[in-house]
Amino acid sequence: MALSALFLIIFLIIHLAVNLTSLFSETLFNEMSHFMGTNPLIQFGMQPILLFGVVFHFVMGFILEWKNKTARNVSYVKYNGGANASWASRNMIVSGMVILAFLIVHFIDFWFPEMNHKYIEMLPEDPNRYFTELQHKFVSPLRTGFYVIAFGLLALHLLHGFQSAFQSVGFNNKYTSAVKSFGKFYSFAIPLGFIIIALYHHFNH
């Protein structure tokens, strides 16, 4: 669970970096998206690994949640989870399910059309199509609002998940405090970046 989380944490940085270019250069965004979308190593090597990592992470999340629920045969007489755990840590499954719903929508919006374009209809590649396709997805205020809410919950999910992943793999030393501080920064900076992208293209399409 922790290793798949760390893998996805790295992916989010790359994904955000590419998408941020759409805020200041349509040409650069098209060039980078074209490279990512046509490079054989990325398409047939890294992309399947990423898909496996996403599915594995969510399946493991549901399994661990079920194990936690069934580990105690006798219910607590009184349980005050907020006494020693944050809302984010107690509700990882809730934020995770919303993120899963978001990913399904995100795949429908971007990945499925891309696969249809390249491998089903086999349309000729237009290296300048990506920016227009991105902006088109954020015309709807409902879709844009859903993206913003999902990224807000992603921030809460990362807030607990980032440091939890490092702790689970045994990273507990003199750098732990720095990792926690960076984790807090990362947990808000990455989702905020995606929110800015969604809102920018919604108001500037």
Compact description:
It contains eight helices and no strands. With 205 residues, the protein is an all-alpha fold.
Care to describe what's here?
The chain starts with a helix and ends with a helix. The model has no long low-confidence stretch (mean pLDDT 87). It has one domain (2-68, 89-204). By secondary structure, the chain is mostly helical. The protein is built from eight helices and no strands.
| Straight-line distance between termini | 39 Å
Largest sheet: none
Helix content: over 70%
**Count of folded domains:** 1
* Tally of strands: 0
Contiguous helical run count: 8
Instruction: Output the helix-strand order.
Output: HHHHHHHH
Structural shape: globular
> Poorly predicted ranges (pLDDT <50, ≥5 residues)?
none
Structural class: mainly alpha
Mean pLDDT over all positions: 87
| SS strand fraction | under 5%
Overall radius of gyration:
19 Å
Draw up the topology in text:
Elements: H1 2-20, H2 26-38, H3 40-70, H4 87-90, H5 92-120, H6 130-137, H7 141-168, H8 176-204
Helix pairs in contact: 1-3, 1-7, 1-8, 5-7, 7-8
Keywords:
205 residues, mainly alpha, single chain
